[in-house]
Structures are given as structure tokens and as C-alpha cells.
Amino acid sequence: MTELAFTCTGVRADPYAAGPTLVFRLRITPSDNARVHALALRCQIRIEPARRGYEPAEADALNVLFGERSRWGSTLQPVQFAQVSHMVPGFTGETETDLVVPCTYDMDVAAGRYFNALEAGEVPLLMLFSGTAFTGAGGFRVEPVPWDREATFRMPVEVWREMVEQHFPGCGWIRLPRDTVDALLAFRSQRALPSWEAAVRALLAEADRPEPPPGHNPDRTLLPHATGGTAR
Q1: 207 vs 180, 198, 217, CA distance in Å?
Q2: Where are the domains of the chain?
Q3: 189-202 pLDDT tens trace
Q4: What CATH architecture is 4-167?
Q5: Which of 154, 179, 187, 201 falls 20 to 30 Å from 71 in CA-CA distance?
Q6: Is 125 helix (H, G, I), strand (E, B) or coil?
Q7: Phi, psi of 31 (to 5 degrees)
């Protein structure tokens, strides 16, 4: 059976992708320089948050995922990042290939929240491989890629931020139910607001407005005082 070793040598943001995308560079080395006709690869990528330290501000931002820092000994568990498939063409001895990983900036997804909370440093990743290898010098054999094939990699936080800035420069992204979006659109139309940002800022301004004193009715019309007459 052909033993395959996997190493991640780097990562970059894809500036030409339609959506946020990371490209991991993989090196694949078969045992004994064996001939590989093709490799149908599956890769699961996990974040291993326990393998790095955190600044106080980062810990506060991660509270929603892992709870209070005093509980991290039991709550700092791996976070699913991505699962992708990739077809590697034939090679002999060793090859390198690009593993394309579409990403999301959705703050409702645990991985998105985790990345957004980090200010600097590296993200510890574990890449788990499986799939099917077509090997053999004469003809070919069909062999499974064992589930124990893995590689670790520390991705710079700057790469993630670069990817996000390419597609959402200076912006964040939130997901809302359709009825909430419809209500927000109606509010924007009624106020003739030029953008979604203006609509949200108007709502925030109204929320910050101080409460009126008890008994105050802003819609009540004040009548002018009559002069020279007697009230009946």
C-alpha cells in the first residue's frame, strides 16, 4: 500500500475569486517515490483554539463561543472550519497542489466569529485527509487514503483579514431573517434614506434618544392663551 504524507507549506487569499477564498499550498509525498496516476482527495480543516494564547480583548470577544475564560479548560474545543474535495493529477515522487477553500464572513458561523475576534498572531489549524489514490507503475491499483493522514498549519491572522478586506472593504456582514429585512427596507423607504447604513444609523439614533418624562405627549397641540376674555 502506498503511504502518502501531507504538508501544508503556505496559504494566500485569492484576489480573483467571486467570494472570500483561501488557497492552501499542499505538498504530497508518496512512499518509495511511487507512481500516483490520480488522487481524489477530501480534506477537513479544523481550528484548534487551545494551541495559541489570547489577549484580554480577544478573550472578551470569544466569550460568546467558549464562555468565561475560567471555563476554557473544558470549553476550548476544536471548531469546524471547512470541508472540501480536490482532484490531484498524476505525479511521481512528490508534487505540490493548491487546495481552494471557500470561506464565509457570516458572524453566525462559529469559525467566522473566531477569526473576527483575533487581532494578530496565527490560527492553529489541523487538516485531516482521506480519499482514494490510483497508484501503480504498470496498470493501476485503487487504494484508500487512510483517515489518520493529517497536517498541522499555523495560518497568519493577516491572511484572513486580507481576504475579508478584498471582498468587504471596511465592512462587516450580518444575516437577518427576511421579515426583518423587509421591515428595515420599509423604514428606509419611509424616511427616504440613501443606504442601509443610513437606515441602521437612524435606528441607533432613535434608540439613544432619552425617554420623555412621564405624562409627556409629543403629539399634543398646545393652544395659545386667550387674552381679554373669560373662560367658560
Answers
A1: 17, 14, 18
A2: 4-167, 178-208
A3: 998 999 888 989 99
A4: Sandwich (2.60)
A5: 154
A6: strand
A7: -70, 145
